[in-house]
């Protein structure tokens, strides 16, 4: 643990990211039903199996969410890919999210509205979805992909890296995909949220709600 959080007085971005990473790494033991099915001969449900096959083929999810983490990190596992899928504004689904994403860090045509591909492990526990929480259910997320992301829904996303064509998924196929994502749920012990947050010199920050929705 010390290796990742050096004992220096100054708080840097590296400290914050390593602390958050260490905290999150506690959650995944890679023992979801999907892992058991892959690593042992324990069968997974027929619907989850059908969903995994769709995930890897017709629904094209695995072109961005790589097995086995189901995020955008690929060997040598140091960086994530950023993709442009045209996520709408959380309040007005007819407008593109105003968050420029990776563009804020590295301004270039291809980074505009690009976001890190998040992991789908335990996604059933992590609503709302996308960088701005635009979608509340996995069904809404799948419907979004099925209609070709933001561009497929008529938003102007000239650099979208997701195909704007419909995936032509049936309701059964959508349910299978959801069943597959549920098979990535691990038996996690949830911690209680803190009763209060540390006070800040910035008075506005002291109005933030504990475990509130932002
Ligand atoms: C072109 C790349 C790409 C493809 C293809 C893709 N995704 Fe994603 N996915 C992303 C990116 C990027 C994000 C994060 C977007 C954001 O934060 O705004 C994401 C986020 C998600 C999330 C939300 C995760 C969270 O915790 O917020 C889910 C669920 C998801 N994708 C499921 C799928 C499924 C199911 C498919 C196939 C139907 C799919 N994705 C295909 C790139 C892709």
Concise synopsis of the structure shown:
This protein has 214 residues and is mainly alpha-helical. The chain has one domain (29-187): Cytochrome Bc1 Complex, Chain D, domain 2.
Distance between the termini: 30 Å
Could you estimate the helical fraction of the residues in percent? 25-40%
Per DSSP E runs of 2 or more residues, the count of β-strands stands at 2
Bound molecules: heme C
**Total of domains:** 1
Q: Overall mean pLDDT score?
A: 91
Q: Strand fraction band?
A: under 5%
Regarding CATH, which class? Mainly Alpha
Strand order of the largest sheet: 1-2
| CATH topology name | Cytochrome Bc1 Complex, Chain D, domain 2
Total number of helical segments? 6
Q: What would the principal axes of the Cα set say about the shape?
A: globular
* Radius of gyration, CA atoms, in whole angstroms: 19 Å
CATH architecture: Orthogonal Bundle
**Helix/sheet category:** mainly alpha
CATH superfamily: Cytochrome c-like domain
What is the helix/strand order? Answer: HHHEEHHH
Low-confidence stretches: none
Largest sheet: 2 strands, antiparallel
Can you characterise this structure?
The chain has 214 residues and is mostly helical. It has a single domain (29-187), classed as Cytochrome c-like domain (Cytochrome Bc1 Complex, Chain D, domain 2, Orthogonal Bundle), CATH 1.10.760. It is built from 6 helices and 2 strands, in the order αααββααα. α4 (138-146) packs across α6. The longest helix is centred in the N-terminal third of the chain and has 13 residues, at 13-25. The model has no long low-confidence stretch (mean pLDDT 91). Bound molecules: heme C. Residues 59-61, 63-65, 83, 85, 87, 115, 117-118, 120, 123, 126, 129-131, 138, 141-142, 145, 161-162, 177 line the site of heme C.
